Amino acid sequence: MSNYYFVxxxxxxxxxxxxxxxxxxxxxxxxxxxRHLNQFIAHASLDLVDEHMWNTSSMYLKxxxxxxEWYVSAFVTASKIRFIILHNIRNEDGIKSFFNDVYEVxxxxxxxxxxxxxxxxxxSNFERKIQLFAKRNLNV
Amino acid sequence: MNKLxxxxxxxxxxxxxxxxxxxxxxxxxxxxxxxRTAEPLEQIRKVADLCFLCQLYENAYQFYYTAKKDLSSExxxxxxxxxxxxxxxxxxxQQPRAQRSYPTQYVDSxxxxxxxxxxxxxxxxxxxxxxxxxxxxQKLYPDAATQLLRLTNDENDLKCALLLEQVAHxxxxxxxxxxxxxxxxxxxxxxxxxxxxxxxxxxxxxxxALQVYSNAGWRxxxxxxxxxxxxxxxxLNNFTEAITSFEQLVVKSSQSSIQQLLFLNEYLEIxxxxxxxxKENISYRIPSIQYKRNTVRFEMTxxxxxFDSEFENLEDIARNRLYPNGLIIFKKKxxxxxxxxxxxxxxxxxxxxxxxxxxxxxxxxFEYCATDSKxxxxxxxxxxxxxxxxxxxxFQFQPDMPGSIRIFGLSxxxxxxxxxxxxxxxxxxxxxxxxxxxxxxHTMELTVVPAMPKLLVxxxxxxxxxxxNEIASSPLTIANVGPKTARNLSFxxxxxxxxxxxxxxxxxxxxxxxxxRLFADKQVKPGTVVMQKSxxxxxxxxxxxxxxxxxxxxxxxxxxxxxxxYYEDGETFDEKGKRTxxxxxxxxxxxxxxxxxxxxxxxxxxxxxxxxxxxxxxAHVSKDSSPSKLESFCCDSKQxxxxxxxTPPYVPQNFAFQARSSPDSRRIKNVRExxxxxxxxxxxxxxxxxxxxxLDKLLxxxxxxxHASSAPEDSASETKPFMIAVQWAKVDEQxxxxxxxxxxxxxxxxxxxxxxxxxxxxxxxxxxxxLHRIVKWSIYCKSEVHHHFDIECPCIVPVDIIIFNQHNCTxxxxxxxxxxxxxAAGGDLLSSHSFTWVGKAFYDLELPPCGQHSIQMHAYxxxxxxxxxxSFDVWATPVASNKQAQLxxxxxxxxxxxxVFNDADIF
Lengths: 140, 907
Hints:
The complex is a heterodimer of chains A (140) and B (907).
Chain A (H helix, E strand, L loop, with lengths): L2 E7 L5 E8 L4 H5 L3 H18 L7 E8 L2 E7 L5 E6 L4 H19 L13 H15 L2
Antiparallel strand pairs in A: 1-2, 1-5, 3-4, 4-5
Helix pairs in contact in A: 3-4
Chain B lengths: L1 H4 L8 H9 L16 H15 L3 H18 L2 H17 L10 H14 L3 H17 L3 H9 L7 H17 L5 H17 L3 H15 L5 H17 L3 H13 L5 H22 L3 E2 L4 E2 L5 E3 L11 H14 L12 E4 L4 E9 L5 E13 L10 E6 L3 E9 L5 E13 L16 E6 L6 E6 L5 E4 L6 E3 L2 E11 L5 E9 L4 E4 L5 H17 L4 E11 L4 E9 L4 E12 L3 E2 L5 E2 L3 E13 L4 E7 L6 E8 L7 E7 L4 E6 L8 E8 L17 E4 L12 H9 L11 H5 L3 E9 L4 E9 L23 H4 L3 E6 L3 E4 L7 E11 L5 E6 L19 E3 L3 E6 L4 E10 L3 E4 L4 E6 L9 E2 L7 E6 H4 L1
Parallel strand pairs in B: 1-10, 4-11, 13-22, 32-41
Antiparallel strand pairs in B: 2-5, 3-5, 5-8, 6-7, 6-9, 9-10, 9-11, 12-14, 14-18, 14-30, 15-17, 15-19, 16-18, 19-22, 20-21, 23-24, 24-27, 25-28, 25-29, 26-27, 29-30, 31-33, 33-37, 34-36, 34-39, 35-37, 38-41, 39-40
Helix pairs in contact in B: 3-4, 4-5, 5-6, 6-7, 7-8, 8-9, 9-10, 10-11, 11-12, 12-13, 13-14
């Protein structure tokens, strides 16, 4: 069973957008209790993301951190917005293309003149697209 | 030595080993069963230990290293691990003179071996602690953290908690502090402390972590921290802190509604225990109060209704205009209520939770600073604040004494008991009384002043939909319901609101004129205020007055009708008997009307030949707007005289008129605007009330003035845009609307086209051109005449002609209409007939310098049509030069058009 937790983190370490994916249909009930743990892990990994992003020229940082069964992969945009994904199985190619897709749609979204950078994204359209990318690249 | 050989020596502390070397020597030589009799290795290890003790660390390292290598090749893993640990330690002891850096990997492999090959984790722990000291000495905190983390998968909660706390601090002390890792491991440590029942330690960890997580928006993580903190505080019986933590969970939440309800119930439980323990009232933060929306109303409007600052501006302007020098008003903080008048206080509460909150016995907490007031503010017995919504709590009361009221809080009973219970989650039956106090800057101050007159507007019914430029009216009753007489009632409204108050009997014509002037003023000075001072001088208590409010919609889509009525109470006297300024009060009114497209005109100007002193203007109604009928039009121009031209066949959608430059316009600049009459032109045939305007009168007033003393021209009146106001009506099944549209005609703007006073010396016989223009004349007669040609064939129209001498010398002038060619004005619009002059048609006059003379002639028409009246010949010559001088024909002036209607055609 593959589980994913995806979060976009702004410049002030604030979550801008969060989404969980699971290949298991009835995983929601059990997950409810541990949802805060995802936030803790993702937040803690930011230290390593900030360290790694200076060591490479590419935006995709691969797996930067690991906690228990969770791997943390990251992607840092040109404007230093961080995409973090927690995953319990290795899927480097899928995550890479997922990040690239999300990056594109995020850029389009951030060009909306009514959107303020660093503010939470509350767009059903955006959410639908992320779900579509997750389905395509992460098989969830 | 046995121990040494079977590889158990390493587990003993260093001091124990010292005994081995210096204290009791081993009694029996080694050969216990199962041990490796690796004599050379044993020796090497011994030498290494000795070297270490003698502080020959480099040698010790070399021997330990050899021992480690050999032991691991022999498969003596634990001995090898101890050797590698000692090797690393030897290296560390050489610091800072060591050539090689601290070999962390040795310790790592040793820890691995200990963890995997022994059941006694004490060894591993000791190794890690030793290494931690070494690494922290060298500031290699991240390495230390990694090593510590390898021991945290243990069953022992307390040990793990302590190690995790150390890990967290390692991350914090790293060269580049890893604050977020620090917070995370503190949370983990706090969790393990909690499991180990070390609540104080757990609280310490969680509180430290909270500093990192707060204000970043990780709501779920934050909720977990607050919840755990609250629980721990509760089990330590620290209710104050427990309440504070749980409050954070319920003030705002992104949890599911069931979770929110659980949190809220737990909060209430804790609050209840707090109350029982400390016998103190709970200070609530839910539902939250939106202080900005809190207000005090003095009229029965919807809750939270606030009159904005526009009214305050109007009121300030009104006071300043009425009392330019006096009436100092000190703006007090807060609101001003009047004794024995009802006041409504609205408190806006917001429920940020997805759970309905039930408030009971809601009381306003207030202080009344008055001698012996017995005022009570009635409580709200029960109110539900729905999930994620806003609710106004309205308290109504009547202050009974002058003084001041300070409102500083609310008290209520909070519960989650819902009437519309749709949750499966258990509902608490707890109903807990508490208070919510306003912070100092949000305290509401009410000053209660002695009784005053109070005006109310009633009977005012303004339409909610209007057409653009429509003029609507409504009766307006102003009643004084207060106990005192109101004086000096004045009406104030912003000019863009286009409101005028008038006597109910006032005719619409005068209102039209007022609106025209208002519009013209607005063009010149936008954003002004219309003020009708002292509309009513006094209105006794209980009396009422009936007026009429006229409104013109001047803004498309939304027209805001607003006005204030200023009034004051009678003159008051202070303690010393000195007269003080009257107290002022305002009645505010606002109404918004939706405005539809109205009637638009598209004027076209064509100049008559012979200069720009006469123009023909045809105004078309734009296609998309069609009034049922056009009534009349008017104009406030001093420069132009207007005459309506009937266009046969008569079409209601457009009209034409002639504009002639008024010869006297520059001389009436001294006449004040208000005295100046507006020219009216009626567009409805059959109406005989045509007024030629007050121009004749004005002419007589002003023309007699000495032209030489005329001041420089008033540029304001020159640049004033020319426009006409057209009155229209639109009648359909639903409504009957009248309105007045303004048509600016830019071509007839400010260019000066007035007759000049010419100097004397120009009139030499050489200057023929000047001699042909020595007099000017104006024609005054009706611009349209209605005549029943069936009943009486000829139509005789009297025509007044005023002849002006433009020169400073006496002139001899003859007017001859007998031989003139009475050609009717050409063009498609106009009929081509002629007329004749009857009666006295020849005048011989002598005009004094710059003088004028008026003559009357009669035009004789036999048919309807439009005719050029300016068809007579004028001859003139200066008298002074030569008595017998030949008369010189004067250049004919622009046409003056007169329309004659045959009433028999129309009806």
